[in-house]
Amino acid sequence: MTTALKALLTVLVCLVASGAAIGDEPATTAAAPAGEAPEGMAWIPAGWFTMGAEEFPDALPLHRVSVDGFWMDTHEVTNAEFARFVKETGYVTVAERPIDPEKFPGVPAENLEPGSIVFAPPSTPVPLDNHLRWWSWVKGTSWKHPEGPHSDIVDRENHPVVQVAWEDAAAYAEWAGKRLPTEAEWERAARGGLDAQTYVWGEDEPGEGGWQANIWQGRFPGENTRDDGYVAAAPVGSYAANGFGLYDMSGNVWEWCADWYRPDTYAKSESRNPQGPSSSYDPQEPGIAKRVQRGGSFLCNDGYCRRYVPGGRGKGDIESGTNHIGFRCVKDAPRK
Ligand SMILES: [Ca+2]
Ligand SMILES: [Ca+2]
To answer: For labeling, which of 24, 141, 301, 333 is most exposed (least CB within 10 Å)?
Structure first.
């Protein structure tokens, strides 16, 4: 390589790292605001990145996106943090509220008691064509009893809160003076400054040189060999942070985003600070309003769900939680 070519490449790499203009992409500002970072948050610099993943039809086309800089929680919201919110506000989550019988005409009252959805793996191998084989509705399940009424969160204060519906996550964010991330912000943050890489840590295969995230090893859904140390959720921050200092952007628990879900979002997306579509549509369940979830969970593996990669998209009924869905928040920089 000639010296001149090396110099040109160095300039280009520096421009990408700083979020400056490339071609017809307008420049962005990479610097963090002056002053201390909000507690437990990391600065995600403004910049352009390639959004999407070639392996998922609903994450195409790949397209260039920029987002303004923002603060993001370095870890998923924990049980201890959510408990403080509930204690101060008296908030009651969706899973703890009585179910409206008008929404379920003809269903006996005893089947309308509060509850939520729990992963209940079968003891023998099963086909992967029907998720009802490993998900069960369990009365008395909530964030305080995430695997059913006989479970609790004692000694799990530092685990991610789960069994939160979208509005529960949004209510927490508002209380904390924050908000839920847009899908584009989430992906920009998850990539940690690496552009167009398969994983949040780059291109090493999962487990190569040690486990980089809490996902699933073994044959899903009945066999979990726990090679990464955890069968279910791990305490937040149990694996290495990404390039922006964020933990568990891949795996552990799924994270709610602000955007409505549609499989064709990217065909119509804005390139700067996209906010997602104005309404939800999932052709697999057209009657259910869904928001985006990101990052996959401890139930993800290459045999069943590779959506733990940063370009992978998830979706969820806004009124449902499960024991592998949580969230984290973001915060805008003060306006100058
Ligand atoms: Ca695991
Ligand atoms: Ca996560």
So the answer is: 24
